[in-house]
Amino acid sequence: MAFKQVLEYFVAHLEYVAGGEQAGSRGYEKYIEPLVESGNFRVSGQGVRDREIQEQLPEFSFEGNKICINVQTGYPLRNTSTNLNWTDAMTHIVAVWYENSVTALKIQFPKYYGTAEKALWYQENETEASLTTLGLFNNNDAENDKLRRFFKAFYEDYKEEKNVKIP
Length: 167
What we know:
- The chain has four helices and nine strands, in the order H-H-E-E-E-E-E-E-E-E-E-H-H.
- It is α+β, with helices and mostly antiparallel strands and about 170 residues long.
- Strands 1, 2, 3, 4, 5, 6 and 9 form a seven-stranded antiparallel β-sheet that branches.
- It is globular, with a radius of gyration of 15 Å.
């Protein structure tokens, strides 16, 4: 499955939950409805811990690295605890919201100081792109150049994080 479908699923999941789990949200028919109808839709969970929610995310890995979905309900649905991340890293993708709609996706890279438990997010190193710019939900499975660059930034940040020596 392509990176584009992973991002589309993530947005569809978040908007479905934020909208009170009503049919008709963006991406509902393609991604959410089959899970709801089969009784396999999970509202929240931590895919990074191999919870059932991970089974809903289209399978995607790159060079042996897997992307996980983590969704917290309530207010945390809209903060950084709801994200897509590489299995063994804190670099992640979060949603940028306007009311009950996701308008953009943002890559966040941790800046460490002290220990791994004390990570600050680089504001200046965040990569953000609108869903339109990324070509999401455009009824075309092809990935555009902006989406390829977004993926490259996400993967490069992951590789950089893995090379950081934590004191």
